[in-house]
Design brief:
The protein is mainly β. Helices cover 8% and strands 32% of the residues. Strands 1, 3, 4, 6, 9, 12, 13 and 15 form an eight-stranded antiparallel β-sheet that branches. A hairpin with a 2-residue loop joins strand 3 and strand 4. It starts with a helix and ends with a strand. It binds magnesium ion. The site of magnesium ion (MG) has 7 residues, from strand 7 and strand 8.
């Protein structure tokens, strides 16, 4: 009986393993410097811009920022040139004019080359699902910071499973499958936000559930919000570049 019970427990534990790292989250404080950095995986060289699926909504095609505004709805003032857009210090974060919930999102980005600064002050930007849940953009190529704030981290909560960051200046891809959180009429969480993230072709989050909004030096609880909200790109004072951004609603 003991063997059967142990076997079943093993089965249950292994069935829970993928996609849930909630126990790990409890072990580490937010931005805990002692939390280990994940192993480095060389993703290989950057390719050309990814092909755009026929049913995708193109959010940035390299020509203009017509699909983007500031957080206050004013025209976005990021630089657009040579088919890319670049964050402009002081111009503020930008967001899509359209709102999205569950989605597949493709983003290509490159951190400044040569690199300037260190830690969080090095090629920092971010992709904000619903404007609330950040997949960190950072130059984490041979550059150390707290693990839950490195490139492809779910900021302040989960480091990526591996560090697949390319060199500064090289194009990198995020392919994100996002499930928006669901709330009941009282505002209680029915199901949390969930993200699968592929960085440069390498899986770095497997249906990871968030504990709440991502935040700096905090892990705040969920607050009920609309089912669809704009996607944001962060101005963190660094000239991070973006190209070929598209989305498929799920
Ligand atoms: Mg950021």
């Amino acid at each position: 009986a003991t063997a059967v019970a142990t076997g079943l427990l093993g089965l249950v534990l292994s069935a829970q393993a993928p996609g849930t790292r909630a126990a790990e989250l409890q072990k580490w404080g937010v931005h805990d410097e002692a939390r280990p950095m994940p192993p480095v995986v060389d993703p290989g060289p950057a390719g050309p811009p990814a092909l755009v699926p026929a049913d995708a909504i193109v959010l940035f095609d390299g020509k203009d920022l017509s699909g983007w505004t500031t957080s206050k709805g004013a025209p976005a003032k990021w630089l657009v040139k040579d088919g890319i857009m670049e964050a402009v210090k002081g111009a503020g974060s930008i967001q899509t004019t359209r709102a999205f919930g569950d989605c597949q999102l493709h983003v290509e980005w490159a951190s400044p080359a040569p690199p300037v600064g260190s830690g969080q002050d090095r090629g920092n930007s971010g992709v904000f699902l619903m404007g609330i849940y950040e997949v960190q953009v950072l130059d984490s190529y041979q550059s150390k910071t707290y693990a839950d704030g490195m490139a492809a981290s779910l900021y302040g909560q989960y480091p990526p499973l591996v560090n697949a960051t390319r060199k500064p200046g090289e194009w990198q891809t995020y392919d994100i499958v996002f499930r928006a959180p669901r709330f009941d009429q009282s505002g209680a969480v029915v199901s949390p936000a969930r993200l699968t993230v592929i960085h440069n072709g390498v899986l770095v989050h497997d249906a990871q559930e968030l504990s709440g909004p991502t935040a700096h030096k905090a892990r705040p609880p969920y607050k009920a919000h609309a089912g669809k909200l704009p996607i944001g790109l962060q101005d963190h004072s660094h000239p991070v570049r973006f190209r070929n951004i598209w989305i498929r609603e799920l």
